[in-house]
Design brief:
With about 575 residues, the chain is α+β, with helices and mostly antiparallel strands. Helices cover about 45% and strands about 15% of the residues.
Length: about 575
């Protein structure tokens, strides 16, 4: 399980697994080792008190700018307050970071072990990866051009880095406030501190439970293992991804990546994976699919660049890119990158793919311009730039590229039409295939009812997307392929309200259908009279609602296990797996 947003591609919809996939053995990872603190980290800890006081000055100035004190806020008012304070802090710190160039800042930040920060620097419950991503986003605005890696062990540089991290920490706290305010938590403002929760204890408890459930994600369950031999001529949408380790540095190649790369001695901070630039939130990038994406041009650019990075690693080996497993970065000549991109785009396989999507006329310069434009400076939850220029060199942040490919670039379900319907059908197929691999596959007469339109007195009632059977109990499942984007993850108010509304409507509709079948267990083409009936709504990823039905647990007859009215595909798969032990 992964509880952070970047380590294993949180936000990637795991329901892409195809019907009939073979069950793979569990991946056993060793307990991670935390490397000793570096000189920079020791200096950072000593600099923290002074940096914290400086950062609080930034916060106080932002609060004074808001002009609100001792006010009780909720809903839109609370949301807008946090957004304003956050924007003011980001703007003020951005004005103070031009002492170094963005590349220097990036290398300083990526030299830090987030596990050390979590254990020694911040409180244990703080998500250090999120803070480092915010710091990277701010640092991308630095205008200085020089790169000075030697500053890493200078006390003055440690203080500047500590100041950046302290402000990023306060920004992260305000982002938590943004996400909570959109969910209805009330706050009371202060003259010098971020607002504190006000008479919302029950809602805070629900949010904590939501965060815990949202951490149930297993990349091993849905990721196809690919060997080096399988990617000598990969499809266009197989790309190189780099993820931060969940718990910090690991020694040697303790957790083998899906790429069959040569071992690298020392400590690793990033694992490399060959993954397909597709998923339940994206779907295979086959002809006709691209038009359903929110940002199709960015999908093309990241796919081509990610494919090129994969080819370079496979052909050149890790020795040529020593920063890749340490910092998630690949450095190469800028002209070499342009030349290699043009060569990649002109390959017959890539040209055929581009032509099928009406994307003719692509070239290296256009691709690089699109990639550069994907950096959203000082915006919530975004990483720093994908591409940095340092003299004649180009530095590709593969970790940032991975974030965009796996979190931001998604199909917009509101476009509707054939493509979204196809994706919804795949989600249903995946769910039932998952059930059918277990001992809880419904008996044949019930299994035949899946995805059939059930009728009563000559009228259509509904179709049941999936069914799981525990003894004489059936759980009728409604699969809702409700997708959320980065704005929802960041807590954007309208996105949150819209997603909440869709989920609560789905719960209402399925409760009505379940009540109908309980009242009318025998219909024209179904017979549930020999079973007790329960229901649940299944979604690709957790969406918040305070509705009690989403959290109400129904036991399944296995000690200590039950399902809730709203489950994610990962939670549901884990429950079936544990019930089968």
């Amino acid at each position: 399980m992964s509880g952070n947003g970047q380590a294993f591609g949180v936000g990637r919809d795991k329901a892409t697994v195809r019907a009939g996939h073979e069950k793979r053995p569990k991946v056993q990872r060793p307990t991670p080792k935390c490397r000793p603190m570096t000189d920079l980290e020791k200096l950072l800890i000593r600099a923290r008190p002074g940096a914290s006081e400086w950062a609080r000055g930034i916060l106080k100035a932002a609060i004074r700018e808001s002009g609100r004190e001792r006010e009780i806020l909720e809903g839109v008012a609370a949301y807008e307050y946090f957004v304003g304070v956050r924007a003011s802090m980001m703007r003020r710190i951005a004005e103070s970071i031009d002492v170094f160039g963005s590349v220097t800042w990036l290398k300083l930040i990526r030299a830090l072990n987030h596990r050390v920060l979590k254990l020694e620097y911040f409180q244990a419950e703080v998500e250090a990866l999120s803070i480092l991503q915010i710091a990277t986003n701010i640092a991308g605005t630095a205008r200085a051009t020089e790169t000075r890696e030697q500053v890493a062990i200078e006390p003055r540089s440690a203080m500047r880095l500590a100041r950046l991290l302290e402000v990023a920490y306060l920004v992260e706290q305000s982002e938590w406030g943004i996400r909570s305010a959109t969910k209805g938590v009330r706050y009371i403002t202060s003259a010098e501190e971020l607002p504190t929760q006000y008479q919302s204890n029950s809602l805070i408890s629900i949010l904590r439970e939501f965060d815990l459930r949202n951490s149930w994600r297993s990349v091993e369950r849905w990721t196809t293992e690919l060997s080096r031999d399988e990617v000598t001529d990969p499809p266009i949408y197989r790309i190189l991804n780099a993820y931060s380790y969940q718990d910090g540095y690991l020694a040697d190649n303790a957790w083998d990546s899906t790429v069959a790369l040569e071992p690298k001695h020392g400590f690793h901070q990033f694992t490399l994976r060959i993954e397909e630039a597709k998923g339940p939130s994206r779907d295979p990038l086959d002809p006709g699919v691209l038009e359903a994406f929110e940002r199709p041009i960015e999908v093309v650019a990241t796919t081509i660049l990610g494919r090129l990075m994969l080819q370079k690693v496979l052909e050149d080996g890790l020795a040529l890119y020593p920063d890749l497993t340490q910092r998630g970065l690949m450095t190469m000549g800028m002209e070499d990158l342009r030349s290699d991109l043009d060569a990649e785009i002109n390959k017959q396989l890539v040209q055929k793919w581009l032509d099928s999507h009406a994307q003719t006329g692509q070239n290296a310069e256009r691709c690089l311009q699109v990639v550069k434009s994907m950096y959203r400076p000082l915006e919530r939850s975004y990483p720093g730039p994908i591409l940095y220029e340092e003299g004649e060199n180009a530095i590709v942040d593969v970790a940032a590229l991975t974030w965009h490919a796996s979190v931001e670039l998604r199909i917009n379900a509101r476009h509707g039409g054939r493509l979204v319907n196809i994706g919804a059908k795949r989600f249903e197929d995946v769910t039932q295939a998952l059930i059918d691999e277990t001992s809880y596959k419904p008996e044949p007469t019930v299994r035949d009812l899946v995805q059939r339109k059930l009728r009563f007195n000559g009228k259509d009632v509904t179709d049941i997307d999936a069914i799981v059977q525990f003894d004489r109990r059936l759980f009728l499942i409604s699969c809702k392929r409700t997708l959320v984007g980065v704005n929802y993850i960041a807590g954007e108010y309208r996105e949150m309200i819209a997603a909440k509304s869709r989920i609560e409507q789905a719960l209402d509709e399925w409760a009505d259908r379940l009540a109908f079948f309980k009242d009318h267990p025998i219909g024209d083409n179904y017979d549930f009279s020999d079973f007790s009936l329960n229901g649940l709504v299944l979604v690709p990823e957790m969406i918040f609602t305070p509705d009690a039905r989403a959290r109400e647990i129904t036991p399944i007859g296995v000690a200590g296990l039950g399902v809730t009215g709203l489950e994610t595909i990962d939670q549901f798969a884990s429950i079936l797996e544990m019930a089968s032990w």
